[in-house]
């Protein structure tokens, strides 16, 4: 009897520790939810309480939408992240296919360059890229937000690793069936690589939806603002020190990501069975 | 339907020569097996015929036409791969339909949404549907047309791969170890199915396998490939009975042929294990190897003696392993009647008829030999 109690203690302790960790991570998020739901007088009152006495989320949301064109910023975020992701795939998949499955002179050094590219932080190249966009006259536009990220060395690397696992026989079968090399990339490799593309998509979309640094550098006109920039701008210009609507706006801006993640998570779990290959 | 001619095909990867001059002509409608141990270059040769690999030198002709620089799909061959290589995201129907769609629809018509608007696509798709369903019915796949390959058993996937090959009516079929992922029972069943398929289609079949039993049972001719060379090409019975090379003798036949160390005397008589075996040859005095198939060893009487070290009873037949002085590995003898198996450890006399002997020189080349009249008499005296 005492043995079973002892066995129970360990898992309990582990879960307590994990829960505590989760709480620390979630605390700012919870506080944001709480603040977004409070009226102004409660936010500035000296006593700390989590659950608002008066539930003011809808009022705060209404105020946020009234003060700033949140829809516009969300749309900007959508345009930018989707364009970046689509172009990244358009470039990374053929490149990864060539690096993984085609035999050509200089393949090894090229792949080494790709690996090297992963090591370079985007901040390091920010100024040359900025100057380049300036020369092209492309600053302060969607193009400035999208173009620098269209070639993702990480994406090329990830897809190349995945393509390595696709059996050569499948590609040869496609060649026998008369599918061209580009056809193989889009009609054979892409469908089998959906799990990897999804994973890469999550990385890419999250990174560029949340990116603050680059839009801050290249943008001037508020009409191109991406969500994080909009939140920051919102705080400075419209809301002043009015935290309720600010937190409500922040909530609106992270909502698409959270929802998209939940959907993609299900997709992850479903996966795609590759057993047909063997 | 086409005749396929290979002349002096060579291929090397980096510095290793994988194919060292292969010549082979496969007649229209013939079933030829390319058999040899793993890594000897069979798949490479098949891929060169298919156009998936470029030969280093030499020429491939299909139906009399050289096909250098002709793309794989334009050669009008079909290939069945060991791993089946089905498209995992497509249904069985779509898998079989792919080669037809690629051939008959234009790029525009194949587009997912736009293509549907084009009138020609509708007509072609209807033809394709009929043909795919016809092939599926032949292969008993009609019930699975909507399934994905992942939901099929190994044998069914195999049949889908065959279906994808026959639907395009190629001039020749190339098989690369198509049965090696199946379990033993299914493999034997599929052997018969593929042989029947060949009889029905009357098409040229080139079948690659490392399993000599598959090659022996299915094909009209077998081409034994060892180390990148075709060592012997001929009818299965001929290759089995009359191997031109010791490697062929060892590779073909299961269990393996017995090889005894021997010596050719200056008078042409052959000795092994210290006894003359009633075989004579014209050659000069030299060491040789004496090959005798397990089923040609007669146990119970004879000039030699061995100890039973192991008995394999297969039910219908049995193999006795005999430890013989002077031999590194036990000698195998087949016993047709399993009710009369010798005891383990017992001493057993054995011998073999002169016409069972296949002689090879030290380099492994076959030496012609014939029964020596005098020696036959001695053997008979000895066995009385
Ligand atoms: N693409 C390649 N690159 C380098 N070596 C290869 C390649 N393909 C095959 N080989 C080598 O060629 C030899 C023959 O291969 P293969 O034709 O597949 O043999 P088999 O089908 O008879 O088992 C092997 O030693 C293999 O390692
Ligand atoms: Mg092979």
TrEMBL record, chain A:
Membrane topology term: Multi-pass membrane protein
Keywords assigned: Cell membrane, Membrane, Transmembrane, Transmembrane helix, Transport
Every ABC transmembrane type-1 domain range: 74-264
Listed GO CC annotations: plasma membrane
Matching InterPro entries: MetI-like, MetI-like_sf
SUPFAM superfamilies assigned to the protein according to its UniProt record, in alphabetical order: MetI-like
UniProt xrefs under CDD domains: TM_PBP2
Membrane-spanning ranges: 12-33, 73-98, 110-130, 142-163, 184-209, 243-264
Location relative to the cell: Cell membrane
One biological process term in Gene Ontology: transmembrane transport
Ranges in a coiled coil: none
Pfam family for this entry, one: BPD_transp_1
Protein family membership: Belongs to the binding-protein-dependent transport system permease family.
Name the UniProt record assigns to this protein: Carbohydrate ABC transporter permease
TrEMBL record, chain B:
UniProt keyword list: ATP-binding, Nucleotide-binding, Transport
PROSITE patterns cross-referenced by the UniProt entry: ABC_TRANSPORTER_1, ABC_TRANSPORTER_2
Compartmental location: Cell inner membrane
This protein's record includes keyword Signal: no
Pfam families membership: ABC_tran (PF00005), TOBE_2 (PF08402)
An example Gene Ontology CC term for this record: ATP-binding cassette (ABC) transporter complex, substrate-binding subunit-containing
InterPro entries: AAA+_ATPase, ABC_transporter-like_ATP-bd, ABC_transporter-like_CS, ABC_transpr_MalK/UgpC-like, Mo/tungstate-bd_C_term_dom, NA-bd_OB-fold, P-loop_NTPase, Transp-assoc_OB_typ2
Every ABC transporter domain range: 4-252
Protein topology in the membrane: Peripheral membrane protein
Domain of life: Bacteria
Main location group: membrane
SUPFAM superfamilies: MOP-like (SSF50331), P-loop containing nucleoside triphosphate hydrolases (SSF52540)
Single annotated GO MF: ATP hydrolysis activity
Alphabetical list of PANTHER family matching this protein: MALTODEXTRIN IMPORT ATP-BINDING PROTEIN MSMX (PTHR43875), OSMOPROTECTIVE COMPOUNDS UPTAKE ATP-BINDING PROTEIN GGTA (PTHR43875:SF1)
Role: Involved in beta-(1-->2)glucan export. Transmembrane domains (TMD) form a pore in the inner membrane and the ATP-binding domain (NBD) is responsible for energy generation.
Family that this chain belongs to: Belongs to the ABC transporter superfamily.
Protein name (database record): ABC transporter ATP-binding protein
